[in-house]
């Protein structure tokens, strides 16, 4: 059923059009308006697919209304009804985003045909207009290297992408290795992206690697010396655009408190602070968590994940909980075989059926289930 709103200041015209449309199967007249102001008020109430819009109307005319509608409701198809000799106005209306026009006086067939054809032409396009998103950000961080940030970032991204649109961003700018973990051969990197137009998603998109339908990845530069060319301003602009197109950004970082790292810690909704179970790592984590506190981060934002959890290492879950209190979040099982085979095959644990029932996968799934995105 095509829902149609008729906008014309002449009552008789509206009535004639309504009569014609009422006789036609598949059409439903959902409202009538005498001017542009009424149209704008009616839209949220009657939710039209198509608006038949006269140009000359009082208060807000058809041109202004068209401009506002196509900006605020890009899904609505505006068809202009114009009289002979209004070509300048008509040109403007099309410029403002009207999809089609019909010249008055028109007959029954012309009207029906124009609405049907225009609706058919644009209905699929409308499905493609995405609603603007506002992604949550999870930043992986640790004070000690090699504790599993990249392993966690990659596998969590794969798991979250079963239902959410996810972007995995490798901001370990010097030594980022996500490309290895997911076999991103012949890949483009953030280095190329920041040298292009950072304001537009269609430009950034060409530098993303599509892991699956819901997961895109932006890789770190290929050589460490490129890192210094990527500043905080570029990252800020990049995140602004990316946030609008994903439900979740997962950001992997290197081990440092650089400007870039601080910026993505600040921007994060959640910081997954990663540690292992050895005392050196735990001690470093404690210090790092204190730094987080002094930066003013809430304990709800900073979540400690103990990676490579194994009871045989002489530290119990209880010890960890007592030491880290409200910062403690989850443990991820120690499973060298699964992790190393995954790295060497370039296939994350989370997308390898072999590990479907593994404890490590269960612990990763527990994390994704415990976070509201
Ligand atoms: N849950 C786990 N079980 C067993 N081994 C693991 C686990 N997680 C990580 N590892 C091991 O730790 C190594 C380092 O992991 P990863 O590269 O993810 O750490 P990182 O914190 O990103 O390191 P870097 O600081 O160098 O970026 C892996 O190569 C793997 O051998
Ligand atoms: Mg890493």
Task: Please give the order of strands in the largest beta sheet.
Answer: 8-9-7-10-6-11-12-13
Total DSSP E strands? 13
Give the helix level as a range of percent. Answer: 40-55%
Largest sheet: 8 strands, mixed
**Total separate domains:** 2
Radius of gyration: 28 Å
- In the CATH scheme, what's the topology name of the largest domain? Rossmann fold
- On the 0 to 100 scale, the average pLDDT is 93
Note the gap between the termini.
Answer: 35 Å
Q: What is the global morphology?
A: elongated
What low-confidence regions span 5 or more consecutive residues with pLDDT below 50? none
**Can you say what the CATH homologous superfamily of the largest domain is?**
P-loop containing nucleotide triphosphate hydrolases
Query: Which structural class is indicated by helix and strand composition?
Result: alpha/beta
Q: How many helical stretches?
A: 15
Bound molecules: adenosine-5'-triphosphate, magnesium ion
CATH class of the largest domain: Alpha Beta
SSE string, helices as H and strands as E: EHEHEHEHEHEHEHHHEEHEHEHEHEHH
The proportion of residues in beta strands is 15-25%
Annotated CATH architecture of the largest domain: 3-Layer(aba) Sandwich
Summarize the structure.
With 373 residues, the chain is an alpha/beta fold. The protein folds into 2 domains: 2-128, Rossmann fold; 136-369, P-loop containing nucleotide triphosphate hydrolases (Rossmann fold, 3-Layer(aba) Sandwich), CATH 3.40.50.
């Amino acid at each position: 059923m095509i829902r149609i709103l008729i906008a014309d200041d002449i009552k008789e015209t509206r009535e004639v059009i309504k009569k014609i449309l009422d006789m036609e199967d598949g059409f439903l007249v959902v409202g009538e308006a005498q001017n542009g102001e009424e149209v704008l008020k009616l839209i949220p109430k009657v939710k039209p697919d198509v608006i038949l819009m006269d140009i000359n109307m009082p208060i807000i005319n058809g041109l202004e209304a068209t401009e506002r509608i196509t900006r605020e409701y890009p899904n609505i198809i505006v068809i202009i009804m114009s009289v002979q000799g209004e070509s300048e106005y008509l040109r403007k209306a099309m410029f403002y985003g009207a999809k089609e026009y019909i010249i008055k006086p028109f007959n029954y067939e012309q009207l029906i045909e124009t609405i049907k054809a225009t609706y058919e032409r644009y209905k699929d396009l409308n499905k493609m207009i995405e609603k603007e998103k506002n992604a949550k950000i999870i930043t992986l961080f640790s004070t000690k290297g090699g504790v599993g940030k990249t392993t966690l970032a990659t596998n969590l991204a794969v798991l979250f992408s079963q239902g959410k649109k996810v972007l995995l961003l490798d901001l370990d700018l010097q030594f980022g290795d996500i490309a290895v973990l997911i076999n991103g051969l012949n890949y483009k990197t953030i280095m190329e992206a920041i040298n292009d137009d950072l304001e537009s998603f269609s430009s950034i998109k060409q530098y993303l690697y599509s892991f699956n339908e819901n997961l895109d990845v932006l890789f770190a530069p290929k050589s460490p010396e490129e890192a210094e060319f990527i500043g905080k301003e570029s990252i800020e602009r990049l995140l602004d655009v990316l946030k609008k197109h994903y439900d979740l950004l997962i950001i992997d970082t290197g081990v440092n408190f650089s400007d870039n790292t601080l910026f993505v810690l600040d921007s994060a909704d959640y910081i997954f602070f990663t540690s292992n179970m050895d005392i050196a790592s735990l001690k470093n984590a404690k210090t790092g968590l204190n730094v987080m506190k002094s930066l003013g981060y809430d304990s709800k934002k900073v979540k400690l994940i103990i990676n490579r959890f194994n009871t045989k290492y002489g530290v119990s879950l209880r010890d960890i909980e007592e030491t880290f209190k409200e910062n403690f979040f989850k443990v991820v099982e120690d499973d060298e075989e699964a992790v190393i085979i995954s790295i060497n095959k370039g296939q994350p644990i989370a997308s390898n059926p072999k590990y479907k029932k593994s404890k490590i996968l269960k612990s990763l799934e527990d994390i994704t289930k415990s976070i509201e995105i």
